[in-house]
Amino acid sequence: WEADTVLGKAGGACLLTLTERKSRFELVKKIPAKKAEAVQKAMIELLDSHILRSITPDRGKEFAQHRLVTEALGVEFYFPEPHQPWTRGTNENTNGLLREYFPKQQDINQWSEVDIQQVVNKLNLRPRKCLGWKTPYEVYFKKTLHLV
How far apart are CA 26 and CA 61, in angstroms? Predict the structure, then answer.
């Protein structure tokens, strides 16, 4: 899994984004602020029922409590070299898709959890060329959807 945060208005709420690398399946949760404690709790909540091998976040301070996530979920963290966002390219590209719905400098609090989940569902049901025109949902859950 790759992890990052998508900021809205400075100092306000943000989105924790978790992207499964092979399938591009996305998990997102709105958190009240870009703080380590909020990120750690949200990561445990989102990933508790998923199969995990590793988590690769960016090097932000919001991931400072990664050891608590490791203890709770039994998963290792791998931090990339500084200033190398391409090492987490799947997550960065998916964050770009989220930005189409949640532009920079907008207050994330203006969107409800339901609104955010609807956007995530759209992205998880969007066919991708890199997946042979399957959706991230189909690849992650090994199910075939008949979208057309």
Answer: 22
146 burial type by CB count under 10 A (0-12 exposed, 13-18 middle, 19+ buried): exposed
Report whether pLDDT(31) > 90.
Answer: yes
Beta strands in the chain (DSSP E): 2-7, 14-19, 26-31, 54-57, 76-77
Distance CA 69, CA 114 (A): 26
Distance CA 57, CA 12 (A): 21
Percent of the chain past pLDDT 70, that is, above it, reads 99
Question: How many whole angstroms separate alpha carbon 59 and alpha carbon 55?
Answer: 12
Q: pLDDT, tens digit, for every residue of 68-79? A: 999 999 999 999
| Sequence-ordered list of residues with C-beta below 8 angstroms from that of 52, at least 6 positions apart, any chain | 1, 73, 74, 75
As a whole number of angstroms, the distance between CA 86 and CA 136 comes to 20
pLDDT at 130: 93
